[in-house]
Task: structure prediction
Amino acid sequence: MLYRTAGQFKTSYRADHALFPVRQDAWLLAFILLLAFVVFPMTANEFVFRALLTPVLIYALAALGLNILTGYAGQLSLGTGAFMGVGAYACYKLVTIFPDLNLIVAIMLSGFFSAAIGVAFGLPSLRIKGFYLAIATLAAQFFLVWLFEKWAWLYNYNSSGSIQVPTISVFGHPVAGPNATAIVQYYVVLVIVAVITWLAINITRGRIGRMWKAVRDMDIAAELVGINLMKAKLSAFAVSSYIVGVAGALFVFLWRGAAEPVAFDIPLSFRVLFIAIIGGLGSVLGNYLGAILIVALPVIISTLPASVGLPLSSAMVEHLNTMIIGALIILFLIVEPHGLARFWAIIREKLIMWPFPH
Amino acid sequence: MTRLISRMLLAGSLFGGLTLAGQALAEDAINVTNLSYRTGPFAATGTPLMNGQRDYITMLNERDGGVGGAKLVYDECETGYNTEKGAECYEKTKTTSIVTQPWSTGITLQVLPKTNVDKVPILAPGYGFSPMADGKVFQWAFNPPASYWDGASMILKNISEGNLENLKGKKIVLLHLDAPYGKEPIPLLNAYAEKYGFTLLPIPVGLKEMQNQSAQWLQIRRERPDFVLMWGWGAMNAGALAEAAKTKFPMDKFVGIWWSGSDADLKTIGEAGKGYRSISWSFPVSDSKVMKDIKQLVVEAGHSMLPREEFDYVFYQRGVVISMFVVEGIKEAQAHFKTKAVNAEQLRWGLENLKLDEKRLKEIGMEGMVPPFSTSCGNHSGHSGAWMLQWDGAKFVKVSERLEADQGMIEPLVLEGAKKYAESNAPWPVNEECK
Result:
């Protein structure tokens, strides 16, 4: 009923290959974008911006980057946190060396640094696969975090060893630092994330994306049909690390405002990996669903008892939170091992037939 | 395990009941939220401090009905010592609570720039960023009664037996947590090393190596230092003490900062830790008036989450002292602004005008629990001085007179650090009125 596809005829291949072959999908997306661009900003307060909306978008972007590498190209990576760190430190150095540089430009440029590092650490992927590659990226994780700690030039020799974001204005409005308002930061993050997501959808649907998927499914077969494995794998590392680097720069500059090296340590990598896996490997939508589950849900749960007047101590709520999220993760993995995106796809298929299944 | 569960249940029921009661009395209530960490890798050292903070406030509510006619509401927001959660808690509590107690140097650094905009004072007693002592630059941040640099200076004074020239040619190892907190004393110790001609060797302990420090202690054995100073926290303290005992390092040459002096850490090695020293700006006095009242009105009345045997611990009673700083700030503000329900900006004034002299401490019933000190608009730390405590195998005892930090060495570094911070975070508002 809601998803009735009857009457939507495709008369050309072009129409059949469109991003939204079913009209309702386009409406749904339009509705979500309306929520994100108009409704949330009008209704949310500062806490909702800073604790829910902005982090969900940034984590979803990081997971999208990882998903391109792991979900589309099949190269498992455990170094996402460190690559985010490369983006963040690159952006920090860019804005401190060139104070007049536009912040948005700096964030976009900082992605190239992490892309370069990502390609360098992606080189072993030409020889090794699977778990062995995961260990190689784990080495990147440890090495880079160690470097963030030891190379004092990276944090401008601050005695605390951490990076602090000064107030940075773009076109006269403070966008980063203590004076920036949450709504401005949200909009900047939203626009960057939306644009990169749009690009990512089109890359993964096109020639390059198909090349990656072929490599993921069977690299020998892909090589036999004429795909250059080196090009395919390294381009996946480059695109993935670029997106992850941009996410890292956003993470520090438009959300946290300060970061110490340990912030980019392995728990961050795992968190992003969880988002990608729970959301669904090889999907773009899944990153958002996963980020909502892993990032937003704990915040919502932790505010719930107080808002309904349940007398629970905050430590208790934290214990419960860990248990609930853990149980949910296991539940979703049992119910649908292919992730929340696949879950949604099944619901959608059912809805198309509802209420008259064959 | 059962104790943990029962404690959790107790925590849930009692604490929840308390906050609920607090919320009902919205009028003339003052909310002082604590960013606590009763969970996570540092919970063991955090919990006694949180218990102390909570019990002092509970005691005041029970005994005096609050402070100056206003009920105190003590809430906790759990961070698990996680910076990200801490920032979230800050956002959640900044509109309700009149003070932010971040409880981690990482969280402090994160929220520090925001305080100028949000106008909520940060209280970071004995931790945080040492240059925060410069109140002209850090108008909203307070680190009474002493900063890490004060601590480092006092330790050096004590181990050199009052004459720093004695350190000439000596070798001192700084065993520190590889985090902003552990790196804090390095600039000052370097300045001392240069001036007095001793060798400083910082040995970092990564967060992943806290429990297994064999590599670090192998290095210490090879280097044969004259003293080992420790800036450790959580599991790192217990790890270092166990390793020192195992390698037979002489304990009387091993000195920790105030966060490395938890009874619980030393209890595990007991007699083997005899002689270990820790500088401290607080000392447990269980028969003081305040502690007696807490025992009677809170602990024995069943309002506390404290395991009984921890009542005499340094960390528990330090938590009590910390809450006292907040309450004294509120009292000063109430008197000055002639209002019951103090707001965040008024509390800032109060914390800037703390006058905790011997007389005042006696009135509160905290004689000997904290050295007397006072703050001003330019001095947000108070530089109270501290005592050297020594582990006698069963408990900590005072082994020194009150030590004073060498402000001649510290002040230029504070001013330089504050200036550098303000410059790299420009535009940064500076309190020009303060002379």
About this structure: The longest helix of chain B spans residues 314-337.
